[in-house]
Amino acid sequence: MTSNPPAPVATLNADTVIVLVVGHVTEIRQTDENPPAGARFITADQIAETLARGAMPAIVLSPLSGPGFDAITIAQTLNDAGFRGVFYASTRPLPDPGLVTREVQRVAPDLVFDLLLPQDLAWFMRSVRR
Length: 130
Description:
By secondary structure, the chain is an alpha/beta fold. It starts with 18 loop residues before the first strand and ends with a helix. Helix 3 packs parallel to helix 4 (about 95-105). A 5-stranded parallel β-sheet has the order 2-1-3-6-7. Strands 4-5 form a two-stranded antiparallel ribbon. The radius of gyration is 13 Å and the shape is globular. The chain is about 35% helix and about 20% strand.
C-alpha cells in the first residue's frame, strides 16, 4: 500500500486517456464534479471492450471491490486484454495489504499494482488535471 502518493501524471491532449477509472470511485467524484482531463469512467464490464477499441491508458484505477468485481477480476481482465501498465485499487487501510498485492501479481504478473488510500487518491486525481 502506497504511503507516498505516486508521481504526477500529465495529459497529452483532450482525447488522450491517461487514467481509465473502473467503477464508482467515491473519492474522485467528491473532489470535483468535472472529471479530470485524460480520465475516462467505465464499468467493470466495459474494460475488455474499451481496451480492444484501442484505448491504452497509462493507468487503470478501480475500487478494491465493487458490484460484481474486485481487484483480482479487474487484473485478470486487464492481463487478458494485453494491458501492461499500472493498476491502482483504492481502499481504506487493510490489515494485510500484501495479501491483495501478492494475489494480483499472481494472476497478472505483467501489471504494476499498488493500493491507494483515499488521501493519496484525491491527490493523484488532482495531478491528472491540465
